[in-house]
Amino acid sequence: MSGQLAAAEPYATRFDTEVTSIDGNRVWLERSYFYAESGGQPADRGTIDGIDVEDVQLVDGDPVHVLAEEPSFRVGARVLCSIDWSFRMYCMRAHTASHVLYGAGRQLLEDLEYAGIDIGEEKVQVDLETNTTIGDETLIELDELVNRAVWESRPVNWDDAPISEVRERDDVVFDEAGEAGAVEKGRVRLVTIGGEEDNGGNGLASGTTVTVAGDAAESRDSWDVAACGGTHVRNTREIGPVTVLDRSTPDAGTTRIELAVGPRAIERREAEKRAALAAQRLLDAPLEEASDELARLDVESDAAERIRSLVGGLKPDASG
């Protein structure tokens, strides 16, 4: 099973190939490592024969490349293709980070089901179905677990398995309707974030996959195993800076977790650090005690407000 070639070989960013069809500014290639928009991951950017690629969509299973202008090359020509590595790597990091987040959620949340992702340039949204209320403390715990998994340098592998086997596995996140891009010819593409004991790295060349069978395929030590057709890094350490931002409830029963990866995560960390240091100065307390001190002041303020309301209600009527 190959799926999108970009998913199978995400580190491939320059290639030459033959043009098989052209319709205005829409181009079909004999083979393409451009990732076509799918499963919440945006299309790759780049150039074909020097012309900007504005979009890539799957049409009847084939990637269609939408160029910024009609090309001068013709069908049968060989063209040099270049993928924007910076954006491709960002999407690889962001998509893998969403899997790490889900793995963290499985440790903290009850009756957890995956409900989709959306990778944007500013943030990544991961929708979860859970009966657990995700408050501030849980959000902090998710952030901690995600960053620990990045620090632990867990290997990330991708392979495929028969759909009949995947349906029977409790350790696999698999939504047949939502992950159509991960299914081909009765087989499901699985992305596995391995256990901490494997953190020496997987020792694989770019795009290499591993065939896992039997009990090994159902390792209880894996951080996350999910059906997915997206692009991913080979090791969680490649994700880099990541920060869980916030949560919201877009629909009943669905909680949306937002996270930032890369420069946006660094900017958020900076803002949080400035706020924490400002609170430390205002409270004249060590940073480790600032949260407790703020909570104490909040309780005292609430109590004082209740007393003022009570006293106000006991004052005699001036007209009486």
From TrEMBL:
GO terms for biological process: alanyl-tRNA aminoacylation. GO terms for molecular function: alanine-tRNA ligase activity; aminoacyl-tRNA deacylase activity; ATP binding; tRNA binding. The keyword Zinc applies. The keyword tRNA-binding applies. Belongs to the class-II aminoacyl-tRNA synthetase family. Keywords: Aminoacyl-tRNA synthetase, ATP-binding, Ligase, Nucleotide-binding, Protein biosynthesis, RNA-binding, tRNA-binding, Zinc. The lineage of its organism: Archaea, Methanobacteriati, Methanobacteriota, Stenosarchaea group, Halobacteria. Residues 1-271 form the Alanyl-transfer RNA synthetases family profile domain. This is Alanyl-tRNA synthetase.
